[in-house]
Each structure stands twice: as C-alpha cells, then as structure tokens.
C-alpha cells in the first residue's frame, strides 16, 4: 500500500474545446479580411514612361491635375495637334462633376486614340476626389490610368 501512494496518476485529458474555438475565430477573421482586401484595391498602372522627355515615343495621353480648391485641369498631350488645355472650375469650393464628365466625353469624342491618362494630385486633395476622377476616366474608356503625386 505504501508503494501505490508514490505512483502518480499519468492519465489526464486535454480540453481541446478552447483551441478549436480560437481556430474557428481565426479562420472566420481570415476569410472576412481576405474579402475586404480584394474590395479595397484599385487597378492602376504607370501610363506613360518617364524615361523619354520628348513626346515622340509616348502614346497620346491625358493629364488630369486636381487642385485643392476642387478644380480640374485637363491637358491633352502627344496628339496630332499641339497640346490642348481644358479647365473645370469648382462651384463655391464644390467639385463640378457633371461638367467634368461632359468634358471627358467631349475629349474622348474629339481624340478617340487616347487610351492613357495620368492623374496628378496634391497632398491637400481628398482621396475620394482622386478615386472619383479615376473612375470617371475608366468610364470614358481610357484603359490605362496612373496616379502621380506632386
């Protein structure tokens, strides 16, 4: 009897329920964040090469400049005519999106060979305006849109 008291019980059970619960929560979190990462991305590419300063090698393009007062400046570059500049001023500090969309349609009708655009933004320009102008350019069938900070 004295010998059995020294022998310890080596049989015990590990409770796996908390481990399984944590793994289930981690898998759910992983699945939800994977969806939001995909939704939060926007496809952009460098539209025009920076290595050549002459316009001979660059395709026809559109440069859109956003200013902090919500006005826009559109410059058509490298087309058969000289560079053209169009402006859309803001209405009391509010962006005039109807005029921007109309001007984009007119530019695309006049220069259908334009397939690339660069959006030049300043640090004071809101992110929403930058994304909205990129979206408007994509809707105007301008395939390659790049974003460049100033």
In short:
With 150 residues, the protein is α/β, with parallel strands linked by helices. The chain contains four helices and five strands, in the order ααβββαβαβ.
Order of helices and strands: HHEEEHEHE
In angstroms, what is the radius of gyration? 29 Å
Number of separate strands: 5
Number of discrete helical segments = 4
- CATH top-level class of the domain at 61-149: Alpha Beta
Low-confidence stretches: 51-55
Structural class: alpha/beta
What does this structure look like?
This protein is of the alpha/beta class and 150 residues long. The chain has a domain of 89 residues: 2-Layer Sandwich (Nucleotidyltransferase, domain 5). It is 37% helix and 19% strand. The protein has four helices and five strands. It has a five-stranded mixed sheet with strand order 3-2-1-4-5, with helices on one face. The longest helix has 23 residues. The protein starts with a helix and ends with a strand.
Write the layout of secondary structure elements.
Layout: H1 2-6, H2 17-39, E1 61-66, E2 72-77, E3 84-88, H3 97-110, E4 116-121, H4 127-139, E5 144-149
Parallel strand pairs: 1-4, 4-5
Antiparallel strand pairs: 1-2, 2-3
């Amino acid at each position: 009897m004295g010998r059995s008291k020294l022998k310890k019980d080596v049989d015990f059970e590990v409770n796996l329920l908390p481990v399984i619960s944590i793994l289930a929560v981690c898998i759910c979190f992983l699945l939800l964040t994977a969806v939001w990462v995909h939704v939060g991305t926007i496809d952009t590419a460098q539209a025009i090469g920076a290595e050549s300063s002459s316009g001979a090698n660059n395709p026809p393009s559109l440069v859109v400049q956003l200013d902090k007062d919500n006005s826009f400046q559109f410059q058509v570059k490298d087309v058969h005519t000289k560079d053209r500049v169009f402006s859309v001023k803001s209405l009391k500090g509010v962006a005039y999106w109807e005029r921007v969309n109309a001007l984009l349609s007119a530019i695309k009708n006049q220069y259908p060979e334009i397939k690339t655009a660069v959006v030049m933004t300043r640090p004071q320009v809101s992110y929403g305006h930058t994304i909205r102008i990129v979206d408007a350019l994509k809707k105007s069938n301008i395939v390659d849109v790049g974003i460049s900070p100033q």
